[in-house]
Fold this protein.
Amino acid sequence: MAANDTIVPAFLISWLQLLTPGDCFDEFFVNYNFLDVPCLKIFISKCLGYGIICGSFIVKVPQIIKIWKAKSGEGISLFGVSLELVGISATWAYGAAHTFPFSSYGEALSLAVQTSIIAFLVLLYANQVTKGVIYVSAYVACMAFLLSPAVPLGLLTVLQAGNIFLTSFSKCIQAWENFRNSSTGQLSVVTVYLLFLGSCARIFTSIQETGDVMVIATYVLASICNGIIATQLVYYWNSPLNKDKRS
């Protein structure tokens, strides 16, 4: 049987094949066997993956807006944000180089853009505009290299391996900043909880679509660390920044 044996409208076939690739399309929409377990896992993974990618376009927008409205990046660790940006970028470059399905890493692109904006705003409102411009320019240059055919695959493997520690370390820095200030400062509750839920979902999609131990371990640690920060948001809810403790 083939795709033309189904009653699914022709204009929907290509879209449905994104969610049910290979023989799974025939299994679902030609044989109408919707209980095929392997295909169900692929379908759920694809839905989660593309859902995460769609959500990633707005996941850090609340954080950006909060910094912009407050005209302050107080309480946000630039070092932590930078480490997070390195981790996101490593996942993006590693996934692209290994030709993993785009649904397994695609959100890294939009998260990288939004994270670099956050870093720039932190510098901007600290009256370090020149440093902000240099920061963003250097990042764009680095990504141009990492996504080019000239980059050694071994370098990307090292970066992804280091990403396991960078991801957790960057979050631990932010968690420590929150503890030290007895406040979560300008952290956005929407952004933090979306990142937490997204990283949890990525554990399943990574197992299903890549099987790469390093990628899976990265998201397991990210989920734990994002969960810690999410808990701090509840614990320090509406607590003002403790300037005395900070000094």
The longest helix spans residues 153-181. The CA atoms of residues 143 and 221 lie 24 Å apart. The chain is about 75% helix and 0% strand.
